[in-house]
Amino acid sequence: MIELRHLEKKYNRTTPLKDVNAVIKDGDVISVIGPSGTGKSTLIRCINLLEEPTGGQILLDGENITAPGYDVTMARRRMGMVFQSFNLFGHLTVIENIMQAQIDILKKSKQEAYDLGIKLLDRVGLAGRELQYPEQLSGGQKQRVAIARTLAMDPDVILLDEPTSALDPTMVGEVQAVIRDLAESGKTMMIVTHEMNFARAIANRVFFMDEGGIYEEGTPDEIFDNPKKENTRKFIQKLKIFETVIDSKQYDFISFGAELDSYLFRNDVMPGDKYRIRLAMEELVQQILLPKYEKPQISVRIEYSLKEHECQILVTYAGEKFDINDTENELSLTMLKNTSKDIEYSYNSDEEEPNCVEIWIRHQD
Ligand SMILES: Nc1ncnc2c1ncn2[C@@H]1O[C@H](COP(=O)(O)OP(=O)(O)OP(=O)(O)O)[C@@H](O)[C@H]1O
Ligand SMILES: [Mg+2]
């Protein structure tokens, strides 16, 4: 059990942790979420004493590990850390990476360290890779080695700081699967992540960090479906909705596409739906609307519901009345209709952007 009492971390210019209080029980899997810069990394680095807290206490099974004179290595041995950037030793083989701390710190024999290493490699799906060097592995494989290395120390708690954010999207799943397996095995874990579906699926508790502490905490359902406090609400709302304004013919559609992709990825949108959403945006905005207006002002709002796999796209635009059904670009209109379950055009002269197109994307399994 870990208890945080009035934990504070001050830097010269900022105080990311003002007053953090929490009890992490054995077997808890806690997702730590929140806007950038709110002290999520600082919190788990403090718990592991990689950063020295400037105030408050951390109790590990009742023992104050922040007390002067406490042996830091003792605490670290019981708390494993997994970093975004793997931190493997490039000059050591996979198995040597896993053996080293077991031998140096836990004083195990080489044979013992090796045997456990082989077992753990198997557990993370990397049997047979022991003699390879990190550079021969993909990012996802490196991170799984790093997880095996952490497990080799048999820590009471595992702290993970954005373990999948440095990975190519195709490799996120394999690392998440390994972490999920650990969570299900009853390991106590605290995991900082920006991947909300993962955060939700894996945890029994969620900490939302803001304003120098744990601003709101609850079960995944409470935090994601029913957040109580204002900042949490805003944060959750923003995750679920994609919004952008296109206000020039030179608009950067490449970065628009990248942002849309990352939104669709975060929300676990199914590949087929993803394709139709992208296609609909391209046909409607780029092919039909942009050529029509000299000075475009087009607002896009996309909301995807994971539960119903439904996607609603709302596009409003300024300028003269223009029903997209009257477009001369029949090809794009046909494509748009093929991706959609329903399209509605309306005009409201009271609005700054009086034209409005609502699209419901067709979902196919
Ligand atoms: N070593 C340091 N020295 C000075 N300031 C720091 C240091 N580490 C972090 N900070 C500051 O503390 C604040 C919290 O940083 P932290 O990295 O914990 O945020 P975070 O919630 O993990 O953000 P992100 O989601 O972007 O990873 C930031 O304002 C950051 O600039
Ligand atoms: Mg961070």
Helix content: 25-40%
Describe the global form.
elongated
Q: Give the name of the CATH superfamily of the largest domain.
A: P-loop containing nucleotide triphosphate hydrolases
What count of structural domains?
A: 2
CATH class call of the largest domain? Alpha Beta
Separate helix tally: 12
Question: How many strands, which pairing sense, and closed or not: the largest β-sheet?
Answer: 6 strands, mixed
Total number of beta strands: 15
Strand order of the largest sheet: 6-7-8-3-9-10
User: What is the rounded Rg?
Assistant: 25 Å
Could you say what the CATH architecture of the largest domain is?
A: 3-Layer(aba) Sandwich
Looking at the structure, the CATH topology of the largest domain is Rossmann fold
Uncertain stretches of 5 or more adjacent residues:
none
Class based on secondary structure composition and strand pairing: alpha/beta
